[in-house]
Sequence to fold (363 residues):
Amino acid sequence: MIDMNVVFRAMMEREASDLHMRVGCPPVLRINGVLYAANVPPMSLDDIKAVLDFILTEEQRATYAREYELDCGFGLASVGRFRVNVFSQRGTPALAIRAIRTVVPLFTTLNLPEVILDIAQKNRGLILVTGTTGSGKSTLLASMIDHINETKTSNIITIEDPIEFLFKDKKSSIAQREVGADTKSFTRALRACFREDPNLIMIGEIRDVETMETALQASDTGHLVLSTLHTMNAVETITRIISFFPPHQHEQVRIILSNVLVAVVSLRLVPCKDGKGRVPAAEVLVNNATIAEYIIDPLKARLIPQAIADGYTQYGSQTFDQSLFRLYKDERITLQTALQYANNPDDFELKVSAGVSGTSDRW
Fold:
């Protein structure tokens, strides 16, 4: 029988981001984006059931038995906190476990543009952090909230599924609500927020039209709303938001979004030059009059990437390719890696050869 204390300690010591467990396979760790199978025998059904008994409460086991899937948080003293997804595959239970840093990282350690801290100081509007699973969205949100906590007196309410980072009050007052434990749903918790005097509302993830609609309403009525979406860039994010709603509402949603959107920060993790870990490349859209115009007019959406590039000096915005160029010039990544992740590899290589600055307004 696998000793889960040993497994979780090994996960944290090896700085693995994820742990996967399925019947008939050995545990698999994801380290710096690469999957490694543990050098142990395949797990049996009894092994998996023992893991579930170790992690889940009686109520959570009942929920999984009824729903065949479950999201929850789990903490192990002196080891760390974990986000757990239990699901059924081929008629047997399986687990995907994400390690969560117990200490909120300082923003200065994230290697991201400082304009993001300026964005976090806004008093109202909608700020979205986007990217694929494991790209650092939750970490960045936590760092932004911790910065606000240290610099402003705000009433902050987070709605998460599950709670990841644990915050302590500094200058701000922070209440953390977990879906399933403290509230029935994101939507219900969001609606209740209007009676809880928040300055800032953090939504772990926007998943449906009701949550999106309420988030836009909260942003439009003087609150600062932070959340995440599983989108790759700013244009896709804007398109996704609008697609939540029926076609007859699209024009109205575009107008509201153009007014409330503060910024979209999209993250991608790319391998470091020295082979030790990954570093984030970030596209940063900072809303301005030009961007707002392009959001309202669907025929001008294709102009948004160039508007982001052109706004580097004045607004602090940047495209992925500008971010990759900076990482390459700082010798954080190789040219091969930059070309692999660039949106326009041919243009990127041409500008590298020509010595064009990656942070130029004319990029």
Summary: DSSP finds 15 helices and 13 strands in the chain. The CA atoms of residues 112 and 280 lie 7 Å apart.
